[in-house]
Structure formats: C-alpha cells, structure tokens
Amino acid sequence: xxxxxxxxxxxxxxxxxxxxxxxxAGSTTANLPEINPDKLSAKTIETEVLVVGSGIAGVFAAxxxxxxxxxxxxxxxxxxxxxxxxxFARGIFAYDPSTAKMSIDEYVASVSHSAxxxxxxxxxxxxxxxxxxxxxxxxxxxxxxxxxxxxxFEKPISERNIPVIERVMLTQLVKEKGKIAGAAGFSFExxxxxxxxxxxxxxxxxxxxxxxxxxxxxxLTHDGSIMAYRIGAKxxxxxxxxxxxxxxxxxxxxxxxxxREIERKPTVNKVDIRHDLGVGQNYLAYTKGPQHExxxxxxxxxxxxxxxxxxxxxxxxxxxxxxxGYGKKGDHTPPGMGGIPSGGASAGMSIHKSEGLVPYNxxxxxxxxxxxxxxxxxxxxxxxxxxxQMGSSLVGSAVQGGISGAAAAAxxxxxxxxxxxxxxxxxxxxxxxAPLNRKRGxxxxxxxxxxxxxxxxxxxLYIKKESIMNAALAYVEELRDHHAPMLRAADLHELxxxxxxxxxxxxxxxxxxxxxxxxxxxxxxxxxxxPTMDTKNWxxxxxxxxxxxxxxxxxxxxxxxxxx
Amino acid sequence: MTxxxxxxxxxxxxxxxxxxxxxxxxxxxxxxxFIKYSADCQMCHLCRLYCPEDAITINxxxxxxxxxxxx
Lengths: 564, 71
Fold this sequence. Notes:
- The complex is a heterodimer of chains A (564) and B (71).
- Helix content of chain A is 31%, strand content 16%.
- Chain A has 13 helices and 21 strands.
- In chain A, a hairpin with a 5-residue loop joins strand 8 and strand 9.
- Chain B has a two-stranded antiparallel ribbon.
- The longest helix of chain B is centred in the N-terminal third of the chain and has 5 residues.
- Chain B is globular, with a radius of gyration of 13 Å.
- Classes of the chains: A alpha/beta (564), B alpha+beta (71).
- At the A-B interface, strand 1, helix 6, helix 10 and helix 13 of A face helix 2 of B.
C-alpha cells in the first residue's frame, strides 16, 4: 500500500507517528506494479575517479581530481547546486589570517574547548587553513552572486568537461581483492541499471536523517556510508544528534522555516565559535513539557538547565546569530528556527562532519583501498560532537572535497580498472531490482513511517536511557530482519524509497547501538542514566563495522589518534 | 497539499531535475511537468525558485498520515 500524506507533521517532541491523525487527510492506494524489471536496460561506464554526490563536497572533489590529472565522473541522486544540504546553506566560514583576532593555534584550541575534546583537531585546523582559498574559488565561480547555486556549480564542471549523471541512486559499492572497483545503482528516471567501474571512488553523499519534517534532509538517507559499511568500511559518530528544532506552525514545510536563508545570497562568516545545536531544548521539553507560545528569545532560555546537558565555560549562554545576512536587527532566531519550537526537525542526522566513514588519514581515506569520503559522508569530527564554528559546515565540505579528490587522483596512478564478472553483475542487478520483483511486500512509505514512530520521539533519539533504547533496538531489529527483506516497489520512485528505507533502518541501528555503548553525556549525546561527562573512559570515538558473522560491531578509538 | 499547482509550464524539465525528492515528473504525452509523488514533497520550494516561468504554486499545508497496522 502507498500512503498518501507523507512525512509526519509533529515529529519529535510530540512522539512522532502517534500524533493527531486525520482520517480524511490520508488515504491508501494499492501499489500495483508499473514496471517490468526484466526490460530495464543496463549501462557500464569506466572512469578513473568516481565522485558520488553533487553537493559542494562533490563539486570540489571532482574539480580537484580532474585538475590533478584524473578522468572523473560525477553521479548524483540530484543535480549540482540543488542536491544535498548545500542548496540550503548560506553562511560560509573563512579564516583570514590577516583579519582574524586569534591565531590558528588559538582557534583550534577554542573549538576543542567548545567540543569538549570530541573534535579531531587535525580536521579542524585543515578546514580553517584551506577555507579562504575555497571561498575565493567559489567567488570566481559566481557563488556569491545568487541564492541559487546551479549556475555557479555548473561553471567549473562544464569548463573541465566533467560528465555528470543525474537522478541516479547508487546502492552498491563493488570491492575486488580488497580494493574498490566501482559502484552500481539505477536511474529512477528511466530505470537504467548502471555499473560504474572506477579505480577510486569518493563518497560525497552527505549524511541523512529519518526523512523528518521541516528540515531539507529528506533526500539524504546515509546512502554512501551504509553501502560502504556493507562492504567493510568503518563508520563513526552515530551517537551525536543535530538538535535542530523546527516551528510548530507549519512544521513540515522546509521553506517556511528556512525562507530567510533560501532567499538570500551566501555570505562569509568570520571566526565565531559556538556550542550550538545540542539537545538543551529537548531536555527542557522532556522535563517541563513542550511550550505552546513563542518565546521572546528562543535559544537564550535553553542556556543552562539543571541536570541537563553540560555547557563548557565561556559557552554557558547561546550567543545571538551573527549579523551577516540574518533577519532584522534584534531577531535572535538562528537559521531554520522561529515561532513555537517543535522537536526533531533534523531527526536521524548527527552533527555535520561528525558521522560517516572513519578517516584513516587527513585526506579522507577509508580502510578500503581507493575508497575516500568527504564532507558530511566523512566522520572527520571536524566540528566535534556539537556544532562549533558558524559556516564551517559548508566550507568544511568544500575543503575536504578538494583534498579527497586530489588524493584519489594521486592514488589511481599505476592502478588498473578491476573487472566485474558477468556473474557478479547479474547478482548486483538482482539485488538492486529486488523490491520491484516482489509480488507481495511492505511499502517503503509504511516502513519509513513505522521507523519514524520508533526513532524520532524525544525520549528515544535525544533524551536517552538504556531501557528505552533497548526497546527501540528490538523494534529496529524486527524492521531490519523481517521488513527490509520484504520491501516492495511498484515503480522506480518506490525503488529509490525502498533502498533509502533500508539504509535508514541500518542508520537507526547504528545510532541506538552507539548511544547505548557511550555511557556518559557530552555535547549533543545526552543520557538521563549517565548525565555527566566521563573523561576516564570516554575520551574516545565509537567506530562501527560489520563483523565476520554479519552482525554490527562497535569499538572505541581514542581521541587524537588514527585507527589502529 | 504540497505543491498546489503547475500552471503555465513550458516543459523545460528544470523542476523535475531540481526536486531533491523526485516529486515532479514530465508527462510524456503533454511534455508538461506534473505532480506525481506529492507525499514526498518536503516543501523546500527549490522547484518554484528554479522555474523560469514562475509556474509553480506551493501550499504550506501538509496532511498528517493515518497510522495503520500494515501497509
């Protein structure tokens, strides 16, 4: 059955999925098969560096890989400039040594102080060091001249004749003899099954969420990191939460929450370190109940709450948003917020740059040879377990994209393209199209909605305790073992939703398992049963990987170290 | 309602290409854009902002789905 109605309106603080339903607003229709999977054509393309995703990280990865001499192909679910979270970001940070009031050493130390040691200072420094160059490059493309980025992103791509394949969802990474050999997926426009053979793959696939309401992340479902996990990559940072709140008035409308940003041209942020987007408001709503009137200064009230998330010295109070580009003077509402706060706007997403593939070096290499990641797909912990520098999210992706693209171009030297056998291609095709071939099965819309009901409630995702997380995990394991294998798609749009839903289920399992493991509270991870910081046991990141028996395993990696 | 109507479409396909969640498709017979998967609209307005003809109208209202036991 296909559900009419879609995403949940009152997600988060009001226990998503169980809100006031309207029998007249929703209706159901049978998802009768519209596609004959046997008739879908296949296409095989060879390239040297395959860049997956076309947000700001993907564009820079492709440009820098090309400029370093590689033959590059971009494959994206969307369109350059209009895919990922990039089209909704307007503040971009640049550390300018000629005007900055602190040295780069002081800057990195200050970020680490706010992030309570959870950031990786190597990536924090890298972001600051390269930010001004990337901003200047963006300026030369015309990025600052429009509130829409398609034209400025098209410029460097077309100047270099870099091919782009749009509206294709990749669902499988292919590994041969321990090295990356390419990827496969399908066009949800015309059904073509793509086999992309490559010497190196750079995942610029962003992060994702549980298709929440009021945050522009419904396209993103951790596709890159989940397909990497399936072939043995390590994943980190899943216990952190982006605590973005929404607006109880029109909670499902991204534009109504973000229009002040979407309508304006980008601007450059100066050094402005925060301790933002944690779960203070969620704690307040949990202990005192949601509020039903618009606060005069929504974030200021969130500052210190007895027993709630700890805020480091110097960051006790929320600072107002920077003056550049924001609403009228005295408006203290950060981007995407305002009105009566509702929770769970970005549910399912960790802090930017702090979830995704575990980096094995400062260039975004993973534990699989030739596989790189950048931006929100790389668990670089550049910012840490909390949002620190205003505008670093956008520039961090630009910087990391450029570095990983160049690294991939260097890696491919002397490498050959691995063969993908016919047998393997047939198996991959079967996996990709499986939801179309099922005669009976669950609709992705219903499974997603059920997952949202399990994961998005404030008392599961944000204000955590072991008993509830174990209960939620039991539900998620049921979806993983019983429902994901029976996801059924009537058409290509639903085929995309089926794969996205399966990815979201794995993301939910990762978030629960790492949140159960981290028995302390720090930054955006808050446990009611372990409310204080434990620096003796928990100065460590959590890495997640698939064990030899196929089950999800977790391990600690001490802060300020590379994986063993 | 999510995207309310598309009126004055010239069939350029920009909105189809731009929609992050694949809500809009082009009708092969009329060559005009139409709203095919409205349940997945996140109301981000990128389609409207990119439309060269200002042909797209979007409503902020979105119904809350009915919860059922299987589907």
